[in-house]
Amino acid sequence: MSLTVVGSIAFDSVRTPFGARERMLGGSAVHFALAARFFTHVHVVGPVGKDFDDEHVELLRSRGVNVDDIERVPGGETFSWRGHYEADLNVAHTDDTQLGVFADFEPKLSEASQNADVLFLANIQPDLQRRVRAQCAAARLAALDSMNLWIETTRDALIGALGEVDCAMLNDAEVRMLTEEPNLARAARALMEMGPRIVVAKRGEYGAVLFSEDGFFALPGFLLEDVRDPTGAGDSFAGGFLGYLDMQGTDQPADAALRRAMAYGTVLASFNVEEFGTERIAALTEDEVSERYEQLRSMTHFELSD
Amino acid sequence: MSLTVVGSIAFDSVRTPFGARERMLGGSAVHFALAARFFTHVHVVGPVGKDFDDEHVELLRSRGVNVDDIERVPGGETFSWRGHYEADLNVAHTDDTQLGVFADFEPKLSEASQNADVLFLANIQPDLQRRVRAQCAAARLAALDSMNLWIETTRDALIGALGEVDCAMLNDAEVRMLTEEPNLARAARALMEMGPRIVVAKRGEYGAVLFSEDGFFALPGFLLEDVRDPTGAGDSFAGGFLGYLDMQGTDQPADAALRRAMAYGTVLASFNVEEFGTERIAALTEDEVSERYEQLRSMTHFELSD
């Protein structure tokens, strides 16, 4: 089993009602990899600039993440994002985005990355996603994330990419926007007609819904008393979800496995938001993951009768 | 077992993207009673005007609801509400409210209503809630709903009312607003320090969270392909929740019973929104309730391992 993720490796500067941080290690591929590492061997594909310290690469490597395809672009600047959140942490604002080395990124995957069993195309330009997808023809499960920007500006390319993956992992608002259908259940069905046989609609603190040929499954978010920074929660969710599915070692995960994958996604996302950036998940232990997984079941379980 | 609800009996005029209706039977006490009737004997307390047709009273009576304390005020006008919803049905707008006979309502409960085992104080002025609470001293479980208007204008009275009930059932935004605490888990704990040992935070289509001395329990909303009118969903939830608890016949419902009550609340709310006003719930059968209750468990259940 092995899993390749392509996406951003970034410096994030974030302000929330609970503090602020400058140029933290972040990016979709980083958040994803640090969550998925609990389940499988993860290969990270993405570019960084001359300003990217070895200590960041070392952090990933020391957590068991394969960093061979992190490409250092001479003279370039690492992708950076600056944003802040309102008192209601569901409301995020982007203050600045510097593409840096991502502007001219042309992914060249090593053989090991190309041969991964599971592929996650994090939120990058859909044509780039398609070129990576073509290099990983053997992946038995391919998933993608996207965002409103690509729905608005490169809709056709995104629909093309969706036709080439097994699973779409989007925010619920993006599922509605892409399909122009205000009802989520209908929107997810319309999205499945574009290609993916699995749709995961992420709902922020309210949890996530899974749609598949077996019907649907919904989980609330894990209830937390301390939420400091939601950045990367969706990627940590995807890391838990796809990491667990890769560990199952089948290209047709059963409904029960998909449900447990949703639960692991929820658990990893919940750790992500407890501290700024990758602070919490980089320090996380397997025991903590197992414990919260059981707490999540206890928090959502009811018996039909006495 | 028996349950008394005091609240509005109303004419609702509603417009949603799926249609419009004029002067439908509505109001919090009506929506609540039509949901709770599946579990227990419900007494409705509230005033109506000269414009309230016998057919509406007959509809409630024919569904097993006790209407002896529906007070017809000679010459008065029934409470009426006019509102509309955006394409995103989570966004509601009130266009007009006519208090009518509710402006001078002074509840006088019959002995049967006073002797109820469970009491629900639907969303009315908190001083009114307290006067009803005082008349139902024997109730072993008393719950209340409220709204942003009372939090803003009669906060002290509302806090007084909260000190006299066992259970608060509010929207999550109201729990946060009342306690001035943006985190829901902390806000619910602060609310419990005001009196209630049970807090239910309703989250619209995203479901609801239960807080009690046993911890917390969360359910997503039941996923529907057809949602036509959300009006009254919160009251239908409360009706399912408290109706089921009354049926248990204990003043200290166990955690497992509270969880099932949450599930029945979710089920009744889901039927409420499928058609305008009371159309769906007035025509609902016990079999449909049982079937969806099982579907809800199936939709939210996962096993820890193979």
**Portion in strands of chain A:** 15-25%
Structural class by helix and strand composition of chain A:
alpha/beta
Number of strands of chain A: 13
Q: What is the N-to-C succession of helices and strands of chain A?
A: EEEHEHEEEHEHEHHEHHEEEHHHH
Task: Explain the overall architecture.
- Two copies of one chain form a homodimer.
- Chain A has 306 residues and is of the alpha/beta class.
- Chain A contains twelve helices and 13 strands.
- In chain A, the strands form two sheets. Chain A has a nine-stranded mixed beta sheet with strand order 5-4-1-8-9-10-11-12-13, sandwiched between helices.
- In chain A, a hairpin with a 2-residue loop joins β2 (10-16) and β3 (19-26).
- In chain A, α7 (172-179) crosses α8, α9 (233-248) packs antiparallel against α10 and α10 packs across α12 (286-300).
- The radius of gyration of chain A is 18 Å and the shape is globular.
At a glance:
2 copies of one chain form a homodimer. With 306 residues, chain A is α/β, with parallel strands linked by helices.
Which features characterize this protein?
homodimer, 306 residues, alpha/beta, 4-stranded mixed sheet, 23% strand, globular
Fold topology:
Two copies of one chain form a homodimer.
Chain A: E1 3-6, E2 10-16, E3 19-26, H1 28-36, E4 42-48, H2 54-62, E5 70-72, E6 79-85, E7 92-98, H3 111-114, E8 118-121, H4 126-135, E9 141-144, H5 148-153, H6 155-162, E10 167-171, H7 172-179, H8 184-192, E11 198-202, E12 208-212, E13 215-219, H9 233-248, H10 255-272, H11 279-282, H12 286-300
Parallel strand pairs in A: 1-4, 1-8, 2-6, 4-5, 8-9, 9-10, 10-11
Antiparallel strand pairs in A: 2-3, 6-7, 11-12, 12-13
